Amino acid sequence: MIRLWKGFVAALFAAVMAVGVASPARADHGWTPPSNLVTPLNQVWQHVESTYGNLYGFRNYGWDQIFTNGGYLNFCVRWDSPQPVTAQQRDAVHAQLARQYKKWMDAMVGHNHFPYASVPIKVVGWAVRDRNQLKWNDNSVDIYVNDIRENAPQCSEGCGRFFNRNGTYPRCPGGVARHYDQSLWLTAGFGGGAGGDWGQRIGSEYFMGNLNSSDVHIFLHEVGHTFGLDDFYDWTPSGVGGFIMKAGSSTVITEFDKWMLRDWWRHLKNRYGY
């Protein structure tokens, strides 16, 4: 009987190894926040767990988008403004978008098994009410004209991650390569900002007026939401002052913001096998 049992176990082990087993999650590496941030970070995560309705079930955080793509993000610009845009301005918008995003992603490089040394940002499309507003004729980006959603120009839903959560794009003319994960929604006269898994919305005048700024702080705040970070309108964690996710209290990403981002990765990385 013992010999038969051992033989069964050996056969079962061989079968399991043959079909493959997901690697166990790796231990936290580098989770060493400064001692003065330990308590506020714990307070933040406890608050997130108690207030987010589908915290661990939601599957379209910025993290999910990066890993579905294998390490990059695509954008489409919703130009919700009557102003024209030159090719030079277009390229400056793309460059600033990438620079600002990099400020968040740099906080993750080399941290706690995060696998990407960089997360390239590419703009694949622009949506506009009138094609004549866009003062270029090259085909570097897809252009969507007068497709209106939420009373604003909309990039093709068939190409949008928000509308295609499974990562395939059968209704996108350019396929996966021309899909977009998030929208940069630039609205004339819009004050403040909004952000989520769908992208970020801020004023067109504000963003265009900050194409050469080091920190576009409203945009940076909204990107934080794309990766799950919360707002702090009615409370402040113990022992910390200004930080970019507490709107109006900082114009730059602080160490506390970076450690909050890393804490999200620490709690979600198991879903990606890390």
TrEMBL record:
Protein name (Swiss-Prot/TrEMBL): Cellulose binding domain-containing protein
The species this protein was found in: Lentzea alba
Leader sequence segment: 1-27
PANTHER family: CELLULOSE-BINDING FAMILY II PROTEIN
Lineage: Bacteria, Bacillati, Actinomycetota, Actinomycetes, Pseudonocardiales
Keyword terms of this UniProt record: Signal
Keyword check for Signal: yes
